[in-house]
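This part of the workshop introduces the protein records we will be handling. Getting from the letters to the tokens is the skill we practise here. The record below serves as our worked example for the rest of this section.

…
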Amino acid sequence: MAEQQFDDRHLIETRLESDTVYDGSFLTIKRDRVRLPDGKTATREYTTHPGAVMVIPLFEDGQVLMERQYRYPLERVMTELPAGKLDDAEGGLACGQRELLEETGYRAERWDYLTRIHPVISYSTEFIDIWLARDLTLGEQRLDDGEFLDVFKMPATELLQWVRDGRITDVKSIIGAFWLEKILSGVWQPNERSPQR
């Protein structure tokens, strides 16, 4: 099926000026003045973020490796798949391998790129590349200073039930759960796409 082409020129906003409101170690907050497609002007406030990687660690027995971590903005412990922010000049695969080892102590021999998501398009430049990691072997966990989390295994078949029950509400992990379901059912295959850059 041919890909449908769109002319987006009537939707594009043009940046007129940009101001950095806050420049932190994790994110930057910007306030821009833009020209709208109809010629009027508006203000756009958003965060810039270097991007991140999420890993779906899948064991041969059909279990998946999960994490439980306190997330300060929500003031609660969240269940999620391993993930982390890209370091400067770090590629997605290297980031996934680093984060998996640091957070869980596991290494994977097989890595398959799945997709890129944009979790909060209304106010952030953040993207998350999702990788499937298999052929896992346990090593030593290397948590960052000030990082505290628990790691546990669960049957991949139960992951969607946790999403349905509201036990997992983290959007990247929900998307990962749906990808994993499609892969395990044979509907989708990894390696159909290559990482974006």
The longest helix spans residues 171-185. Residues 11 and 37 are 6 Å apart (CA to CA).
